[in-house]
Each structure stands twice: as structure tokens, then as C-alpha cells.
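Section 4.2 – Deliverable D4.2 (structural model, holo form)

The reporting period included a commitment to supply a predicted holo structure for the target in complex with zinc ion. Inputs used:
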Amino acid sequence: MTRAPLIVPPIVVLGIETSCDETAAAVVRLSEEGKAEVRSSVVASQIADHAPFGGVVPEIAARAHVEVIDAIVARALAEAGLGLDGIDAVAATAGPGLVGGVMVGLSFGKALALARDLPLVAVNHLEGHAVSARLGADIAYPFLLLLVSGGHCQLLAVEGVGACTRLGSTIDDAAGEAFDKIAKSLGLPYPGGPALEKLAEGGDPARFALPRSLLGRDGCDFSFSGLKTAAARAAERLDPGPTGEVDRRDLAAAVQAAIARQLADRTVRAMRAYAAARPGQARRFVVAGGVAANGAVRRALADLCAAEGFSFHAPPLAYCTDNAAMIALAGAERLAAGFQDGLDAVARPRWPLDEAAARLNPTHLAGRKGAKA
Ligand code: KG4
Ligand code: ZN
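Output (C-alpha cells):
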């Protein structure tokens, strides 16, 4: 990322996202007043390709991105009613994520930028999630962000474009990963989060007692591994017959409630620290990422906001899970702030949003359980 002359809005940016199992392209216009307008947002899911394996297979993902990326970008342009002449810049996810897939989207973006002599922004996928709620509403900076997805679970104070401080992070699994793994042990199809939410409908969350990891403990870090193990054990003991159906529903409801409770318990601490550091300032809270699509999680966090005096914001459902509109907007905001990247930008499997904190805190170091989460 280098400093470049400011590109003053209005700007129309083509966004490209290929960091996991969705090939996505979108066109977003950022107005003079800083308002985002989504002109198109196309998402091609690879769920069917990965379903037989119960999770995302990196090699299959990368190959599937290569097969459709050109058609998806062409469709995003067509739906926006634009040719490449109507685009002012290209923004592509450069990480973190499955590096084979990231390379496909980033290389495609670089090729377009080179061929059309357009500015390029190599976007951090997490920064995309961080701005995603701004696709649906005007939310001013700064805000407290809970980013909860399949690969990430962290609390961040977001001061502005590319400026955030991490307040907490998971010490083991991400919340979406917990949803997915527990769903698998309940025999649900991939991706597990939405399937588990559906199963939990009408279930009794109080029937099963599940561990309350880190509850009431200092700090804002998360842990889901104890819950995951306990839920898997409980699932193994369920009767496979018709009575077991009610049990499965109740267990799903208990798991969902336990995840929502853990998220709320850690978030309330972050809210108090955030508010204490900014006396008299507006208190805004944003939840983003795939798990923000979960109704029980949204309700628990909205209730918390009401109790703690924060305004509650979440992206429209279509922009909770991975999409390219959030990447285009993050790119547009970076360009307007005077940042852009060269053709030497690299694809990064791990790329924490606040690299300084990630280096200082050993739980956030690179590695299998490191900075990615
Ligand atoms: O943001 P996302 O699409 O990808 C990552 O960047 O990780 O998030 C995907 C995650 C998956 O773990 C999925 O199970 C979870 O979000 N998810 C949900 C729901 N919809 C998606 N989890 C719980 N309830 C949902 N409705
Ligand atoms: Zn994501």
C-alpha cells in the first residue's frame, strides 16, 4: 500500500472477492458525500462443489474461481449497465484467505488495472467486512466492530479507513467455525451456520447445559473449543429415532444461545472499554461477517446495545456473508483517503487488520491458530 494522489469521489469501483468459497464481483459508487451505492453485486457460491467433502477444499476452490471469474466480472458490469470504460478503479481482495483463491481474484484485478490503466487497491478482506454495514446505511466513524465469520472472531475499535485497534480476538475457533463444526456433528450439511439456525427454530435452549467458556473473565477474548467438544459429545448421545429429533432441535437451540451469550459477554466488556476511552462521543456498534446473519446473535447484540447506550448496526443480510460490494467500498474509501497499490501487491494467506497488535499479543501471532482468526 503506497500513498497516492487523492482520488476525489464520486468514484465507481469494480470489486473482486475470491478469498474463500464465493466468487464475487460488484460495482459500487462512492458519492461526493461519502455515500455508497451498490450498482451490482454478483455472488457465485461453490457450496455444491464442496458439500460432498463437508467443508471447503482449497484446491477445488481455487480451480472453481478460475473457471468463473471472467463471467462473474462481466455479469457485474452488465448488471451495473457499464462497460470497463465506466469504471474508475479496481479493488480486489488480497487476503487473508485461501491463498490459491486470493491469487485468482487479485491477478484478475491486476490484469484489468494494467490493461485499462486503472488504479488498483489490494483490499484486506476483513476491512471489507468492517465497512459492509456502510453499504446499507450511513454509519459514521468511529464505531466498535464485532467481526464474526467462518475464519474470524474479533472486536475492533474502527477509527476510520484502515485505522483500527483490536480489543479482543478468539483464542481458538472462530464463531462461524464453531457453528459449522457443531452442525456437522448434528449431521447437518455444510455450511452449518444457517442449517443450525433453521434446526434451532422452536427448540428449547434451556434443555442442554453447555459450558460457558471465559464467561465473566477479564478481557475481550473469545473461546469456543469447550462448547464445540461438549456439543459434539451431547450430539453423539442423542437417540437417532423420532424422539431424537426433538433433542436435536433443543441441542441446536442451546448451541445457538451459548454462542450468542459468549459473543454478548465479551462484547459488553469491549463496549465499556470503548465508551470509557471516548467520553461524550457517540457510541456506535456494528456486527459484521457471516454470523451476523444469525437472528439469535443479532437479537442478543441489539439488546446489549439498548442496555449499554450504543446504536446497533448490522449489514443487510446479503452483505453479511462474503461479497464483493464490501471489497469495492473498502477500495473506494482507501482511494479517497489517498492509498493505492502497485502491481507488485502480494496475495496474503494471513493479514491481521491491526498488524501492530497482532505482533505484540502472542495469541495473535501467525500460525495455525494465529492472526488469521
Ligand atoms: O463472512 P463469511 O461468508 O466468510 C468468512 O469470511 O469466513 O462467513 C461464513 C460463516 C460460516 O461459518 C457460516 O456457517 C456462518 O458464517 N453463517 C452463519 C449464518 N449464516 C452464515 N452462522 C450462523 N447463522 C447463520 N444464519
Ligand atoms: Zn468473510
